[in-house]
Amino acid sequence: MATNLLKLPIQTTKFTCSPLPFSHSKIQSHSLPSFSNHTNHVSLQTFLPRKPLNTPKHQKLSIHCSISDTSFPSPPITKEEAILQAKSSLSTALQKPLNNPKLTGKIKKEKQPRFRVEIPLIDDSPESLTQLAFDVFKDLPIKKKRSPVRVLLVWPNPTSMASGITVFQGLPFGFFEHIELSSAMTVNNRILNSADVAVFLAPNSSQLAVMKLVSDSLYPSPLVLFNPKWAFEEEESFGDLSGFVASFDVLYAFLGLEVRGLLSKRKGVVFKCVRDGVVSGEKWNVLVEEEGDENQLKVVSRFNSRPSITEVEYVLYNLMAVNSPITKTAKYLKDLVSNVTGKKQAN
To answer: What does the domain layout of the chain look like in residue ranges?
Structure first.
């Protein structure tokens, strides 16, 4: 079935067509391996969602998303829909552990529920992070038997925490507590012990050690890792902490892509959305617009685990090689500020 996507603002390219409005950014190139029997290459560029600009009507393009499998979750068409999808994934996954008496038992130590959500931000400012966190968690539809759910927001630095306190101050008192990650182990134990859910907001890789200590102190409360600042490809280099990072199951993530050849250019997205709380049952999907029809997206590959940059490149390389007789040098152009694939890149 096809659904109308929002009209997207055109930037420096002939057209911009992704699941959300995406802006061009500074990029870093990564060359693909050469293939002796092929002369075809592709170029990828990632994009970042933002609110539509006030551009003239003739500079906007309306697109659709066509997915034949109705069981597959469609990529978001607006920022608001992305937030709703993420909230739905979170609330469904959290509902069971919040109301599961086994987690509070002392006979057998249960696995601590740990989840991960990644929604790209327009920039790395504290205001962007706090506004997105507010939109996602302010009215998250989760319930606990006989008591309201208390959410502990763990901010990456004092500036972000101050901004967060200001944004959340209009909500009912006691539903949200705020602490700063570096000082989390020195706060009153009441704050940690009373948390039903803890959310680590945009932590850096340098904060992983203290993040693990805080996570252990919060057991058995469910944890949410929200927009980590490191790149997915970095995680193998975290040593003993790699396993800790891998223990957070991705519930929701997406990344806009542009596939460029010498004679053609196509748009797409890497997307995962867990809807029923069963993380293992949802695949990572790579969608690309239909050839000759920039208004349609189709699934071109699915992965059981999160695909690396190289794996996505290889899928799209072969796609472009089949459909285009001549293409340009193959590169993966990483987004400056995409929190789906990772950290901010330097000039």
So the answer is: 2-75+255-299+324-333, 79-251
